[in-house]
Design brief:
The complex is a heterodimer.
Chain A (H helix, E strand, L loop, with lengths): L3 E10 L2 E11 L4 E5 L6 H8 L4 E8 L2 E2 L5 H7 L1 E4 L11 H8 L7 H11 L1 H5 L10 H13 L5 E5 L7 H18 L2 E6 L2 H7 L2 E6 L2 E7 H6 L1 H7 L3
Parallel strand pairs in A: 3-8, 3-9, 6-7, 7-8
Antiparallel strand pairs in A: 1-2, 1-4, 4-5, 9-10
Helix pairs in contact in A: 3-6
Chain B lengths: L1 H28 L6 H18 L4 H24 L6 H23 L13 E4 L2 E4 H23 L1 H11 L1 H5 L5 H26 L8 H14 L4 H21 L5 H15 L11
Antiparallel strand pairs in B: 1-2
Classes of the chains: A alpha/beta, B mainly alpha.
Chain lengths: ~230, ~280
């Protein structure tokens, strides 16, 4: 069984079916990207791993089912999440936002804070700034930083590049790569920007209208003419 | 003049305490707990029953009043608010009805005549031409100690920060591993505790009566609306504006008019600046 194993997952928002029959597996220490157009269900998939939607099917982390345990327990289990809209606490400072992230992992606060500031040095300079006054790039960094404060074994990052300048996208990609290589963190990202996803991830899943349409390593996907045409442009 | 300033400060400290418990629930759960005034009534009556009818020491009376307030707060959350699953209108209507029912309960147990509480600390002190009872002075000092304690709790502890987090972004809180149900429960418990202790002081300031929940509820609503959501400083400042306004009205116009301006202030702010003087824009 894989580190993260998703089987026959249907997810609902209210009564609307947002995901149907999703099968996905992620091995420990790899970076996997879920690509697909807007509205494909990428955020729903990550929300479902955190227990934020109604689901059928199973989601297992390291052999333990996450279904029905509640978000708090799932975070405690080692799942960190940086959602697309960041969902930061706007009137708290950067530091306070990070400290909230440590709610379930209090024994590691100092080392995790140090890690976040090492990965994103500019957050250390802005430590006492309210996040409502920050740029999109900085918010994304706080969001990933807050997820790291939970001491995650699995880090989920939803559309890390959306609306950001290319330079900041590269910076964030570098941080994610470092996290995976140096600290062995398993990472799942979602992306509309397939090129970015291909430079970062080892394997890809293509999600469209709530279903997995294709999957494989980056090389396999690149060489599949049909996929290249359909999803990655020319 | 000195009289007005001193009385204004004393009354405002108490008003800040009254409003704090109400503000917390409104900030964290975005819901107006219209049964909040009942916490003050229950606190006052529990204290009265234990100290004046049973002769229990006053400090024990205050402690038991806070326990009662906390328990009632927790029960209202568990049995009512949680069942209504975030339907704000339903919660507000049912908490208002509950307040009326609790008032009837108090009438049944203690009769509907008002009662005078003996001073918590007997004696008076003369400050700058003003006469201040030790009871009221003690009430104000304790109110401030509690307010500062709450401020530190909210800003510096994990649970306090979690309360702020839930109030600012529910999803952000959930993905940080915060169980918002638990945080709401804690908030309702703290709110009940604060309301009950405020009730003991409020009853010694005025008197104990089954309808004593109405005036503090209006003060609390006024402070939240005028101060704005989620601002502790706003709560303190507006409590002082209202406190001084009432003292001035009583001194210059007539005691009967004291609540009127508070209510006019609520309407004025709702029309002119709906997010309150210190409220932050919703994101």
């Amino acid at each position: 069984m894989s580190f993260l194993q998703i089987e026959k997952l249907d997810a609902f928002y209210g009564k609307a079916l947002a995901l149907s029959g999703v099968e996905l597996s992620v091995e420990e220490g790899e970076i996997v990207a879920i690509v697909g157009p807007n509205g494909a269900g990428k955020s729903t998939l990550l929300d479902s791993i955190l227990g934020l939607t109604t689901t059928n099917g199973d989601i297992c982390l390291d052999g333990n089912s996450l279904i029905g345990t509640g978000s708090a327990a799932i975070v405690k289990c080692g799942v960190g999440y940086a959602p697309e809209r960041c969902n930061l606490f706007p009137y708290m400072t950067v530091r306070e936002n990070l400290l909230v992230g440590a709610f379930t992992s209090r024994e590691n606060i100092d080392s995790n804070l140090e890690l976040v500031f090492k990965l994103f040095p500019q957050l250390r300079e802005r430590e006492h700034q309210e996040t409502s006054t920050q740029s999109g790039g900085e918010r994304q960094m706080v969001s990933i930083g807050r997820a790291l404060m939970t001491s995650p074994r699995l880090l989920l990052v939803d559309e890390p590049t959306i609306g950001l300048a290319p330079k900041i996208c590269l910076e964030i990609a570098e941080v994610l790569r470092r996290l995976c290589k140096q600290f062995g963190t398993t990472i799942v990202i979602t992306e509309q920007n397939t090129n970015f996803a291909m430079t970062l991830a080892e394997r890809l899943y293509v999600l469209e209208t709530g279903e997995i349409k294709a999957s494989g390593t980056v090389d396999e996907m690149r060489n599949d003419a049909r996929l290249t045409e359909a999803y990655f442009g020319t | 003049m000195a009289q007005i300033i001193i009385q204004g400060l004393l009354l405002s400290g108490l008003y800040a305490l009254i409003a704090m418990g109400f503000t917390l629930i409104f900030s964290v759960g975005r819901v107006l707990n219209l049964a909040y005034g009942s916490y003050l009534m229950i606190g006052g009556y529990v204290y009265f029953y234990l100290t004046q009818l049973l002769g229990v020491p006053k400090i024990v009376g205050i402690l038991m009043a806070t326990v009662a307030g906390c328990v009632v707060g927790l029960l209202i959350y568990r049995l009512l608010v949680k069942q209504l699953k975030g339907d704000h209108v339903a919660i507000e209507i049912s908490t208002l009805i509950l307040a009326v029912v609790l008032q009837a309960g108090i009438v049944l147990l203690f009769g509907d005549s008002s009662k005078i509480l003996l001073p918590i600390v007997p004696g008076v002190i003369h400050v700058g031409g003003a006469t201040v009872t030790f009871s009221i002075l003690a009430a104000t000092i304790i109110s401030w100690v509690i307010l500062i304690g709450i401020y530190i709790f909210i800003r510096k502890t994990h649970t306090g920060r979690a309360m702020q987090a839930v109030s600012m972004d529910a999803k952000g809180a959930a993905i940080s591993g915060i169980d918002s149900d638990r945080i709401n429960m804690i908030t309702w418990g703290i709110s009940g505790t604060l309301g009950a202790v405020a009730g003991v002081f409020f009853a010694s300031y005025t008197q104990l009566s089954p309808s004593m929940w109405v005036a503090p509820l209006i003060i609390a609503i006024a402070v939240v609306i005028v101060g704005g959501i989620g601002s502790i400083i706003g709560t303190l400042v507006v409590a002082h504006i209202i406190g001084f306004m009432e003292i001035l009205t009583t001194a210059i116009l007539a005691p009967e008019m004291r609540g009127v301006f508070t209510m006019l202030l609520i309407i004025g702010v709702l029309v002119i600046r709906p997010r309150g003087l210190f409220g932050r824009e919703e994101l």
